[in-house]
Each structure stands twice: as C-alpha cells, then as structure tokens.
C-alpha cells in the first residue's frame, strides 16, 4: 500500500481519493458503516494533504524554528500585492484540512484547502496556510494574554511574519473558531488592518464584537466581513447581521460542510473586493477614527462546533 492509499481496519477495505477527489474503494464506493475515522486516519489524511499542498508549490516553514509548521507560496513574505491567509477551525484538524470527516465522506475538495489555494493562484495571489491547532502554540503563552492557542498562533504569525513582510492587500478565509482568531488579530493590529485587509470570508464562524476604543472597527468590519452560517435557508440568502459581519446562509445545518457549501460564493465576494485585480484602492485609517454608532449586542452568533 502506498502513501496515497489508506487501509481501514474497521471495514477491512483499502481506500484512495479518485480523480474527482472522492474517497473510494476499488469498486468506487465510499466508507461504509464501521469505518474508523480516528486519529490514525486523520494523521494519514493530514500528511497526504500537506504533500499535495507542497505539489502546488507551497513551502513548509516553522514559526519559530521549534514551533508549528505553516505553509506558504514562495513570495508570500516578499511584499506581495495580494495575499490570501487561510485559518482552519478548532479540533483535530491541522494545516490544510477543514474537516477530516468531510474529506472522507464528501471528498478532499470539500474538506481541504486545496481548491482555495488553486483559486488564489489563478488570481496571482500569494498564499499562507496557518496551523492554529498545533500544540506548539504554547511557545507564545507568556507573550499573549489568551488561553486559546489558536489565537496565540494567529497573532504571532501576523505580528512576526505577515505584517513585517508588507503585503499590499490581504484576504482572509477562516472557519469556525478561527473567526475569533481573526477578530483578535484585527483588534490588536487595527492600525495596520484597516489599510491592508480587503475582505474576510468566514464560514459558520464565531465572532465577538471587534471593539477598539476610538476606532470605528465595527463599521469597518461590516463593510469587509461576510459570514456564511449554518441555516436551512436557501444558500447565500441574507440573514440578520452578526456582531462583526454580514451574515448569509451556508445552505446547510452541518457545521463541517459550511466552507464547501459557501465556496462558490466566497470567491465572487473576494473578487468584488479586488482579488481578481492587479491593483485596487485601500481604506484609510483616518477615515475610521471615532466611536462606532451602531454595535449589535444581541445577535452574537456561536456556532455548533462538532468538528468531524
């Protein structure tokens, strides 16, 4: 059995991803009852996805040297014109995987970041894939006053690598609890964020109010953040606003599937904000000095985080 195949001890079956990205056996059937979606399978899947990420030209970099590995295109830290930052949700997923279960039952394209990297590269964007669930984020425990390793990892990568590399326009794709990682980042680095971040696409993501004293951060974020949340409403139909974003239906009640369902609408949203353009206008920080008039204290969406 090669590294592209997985032998499941529960069903006594060997699986692989076919040309359409579906996880199937030699007869073209997917996992059946008894399939073991366990830690060994998730480790194999992660290694496979990382290998495919590298085949797309991304490079592994540990931050710091004894820290968590992240993955980036060759010019991601060389003042790129357009940069996509991908942040996974919480749970056992590592860099490159949105959901282990979705990869197994709905295909690697639905459950991984591979299609997002390809879409970014079509637009001439550089890409960075974060690794927020790696336990080595404890390295930054004394540096950032938060008990969430995901947030520590995100803040450190932005502060140490992304911001100093001076990307011109930044786009963020985040899922689940990485929405809060993004909110923490925009609060902490708000003076840099406003003139650099063009759009944030969130999928069934947690979002607390992005309040910064003396800065209209909520007004700014609602112009740049879309959150596709779990709902039985028609996909992409408008929903009541969130605390930091404009909400749309992901067209599913399945939290783990929200990114795959929203993907056909995420990239048009990015393009509306200049992802498909060589250059584009940027916001000015001074235009957002002052206090927010409108903050929604009621609709504070917390997703159902059963990460498969």
UniProtKB/TrEMBL annotation:
<protein>
    <recommendedName>
        <fullName>Arb2 domain-containing protein</fullName>
    </recommendedName>
</protein>
<dbReference type="InterPro" id="IPR053858">
    <property type="entry name" value="Arb2_dom"/>
</dbReference>
<dbReference type="InterPro" id="IPR048263">
    <property type="entry name" value="Arb2"/>
</dbReference>
<dbReference type="GO" id="GO:0005634">
    <property type="term" value="C:nucleus"/>
</dbReference>
<dbReference type="GO" id="GO:0031048">
    <property type="term" value="P:regulatory ncRNA-mediated heterochromatin formation"/>
</dbReference>
<dbReference type="Pfam" id="PF22749">
    <property type="entry name" value="Arb2"/>
</dbReference>
<feature type="domain" description="Arb2">
    <location>
        <begin position="65"/>
        <end position="134"/>
    </location>
</feature>
<feature type="domain" description="Arb2">
    <location>
        <begin position="152"/>
        <end position="234"/>
    </location>
</feature>
């Amino acid at each position: 059995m090669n590294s592209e195949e997985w032998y499941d001890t529960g069903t006594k079956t060997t699986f692989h991803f076919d040309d359409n990205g579906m996880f199937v056996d030699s007869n073209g059937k997917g996992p059946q009852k008894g399939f073991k979606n366990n830690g060994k399978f998730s480790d194999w899947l992660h290694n496979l996805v990382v290998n495919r990420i590298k085949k797309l030209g991304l490079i592994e970099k540990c931050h710091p040297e004894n820290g968590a590995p992240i993955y980036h295109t060759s010019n991601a830290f060389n003042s790129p014109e357009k940069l996509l930052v991908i942040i996974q949700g919480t749970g056992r997923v590592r860099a490159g995987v949105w959901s282990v279960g979705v990869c197994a039952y709905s295909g690697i394209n639905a459950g991984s970041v591979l299609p997002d990297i390809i879409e970014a590269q079509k637009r001439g964007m550089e890409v960075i894939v974060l690794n927020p669930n790696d336990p080595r984020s404890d390295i930054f425990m004394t540096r950032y006053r938060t008990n969430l390793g995901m947030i520590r990892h995100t803040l450190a990568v932005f502060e140490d690598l992304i911001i100093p590399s001076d990307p011109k326009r930044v786009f963020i794709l985040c899922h689940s609890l990485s929405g809060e990682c993004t909110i923490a980042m925009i609060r902490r680095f708000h003076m840099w964020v406003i003139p650099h971040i063009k759009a944030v696409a969130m999928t069934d993501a947690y979002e607390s109010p992005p309040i910064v004293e003396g800065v209209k951060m909520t007004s700014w974020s609602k112009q740049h953040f879309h959150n596709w949340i779990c709902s039985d409403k028609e996909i992409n139909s408008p929903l009541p606003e969130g605390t930091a974003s404009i909400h749309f239906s992901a067209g599913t009640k399945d939290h783990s599937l929200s990114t795959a369902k929203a993907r056909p609408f995420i990239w048009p949203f990015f393009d509306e904000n200049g992802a498909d353009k060589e250059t584009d206008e940027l916001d000015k920080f001074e235009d957002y000095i002052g206090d927010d008039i409108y903050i929604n204290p009621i609709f504070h969406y917390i997703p159902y985080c059963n990460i498969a």
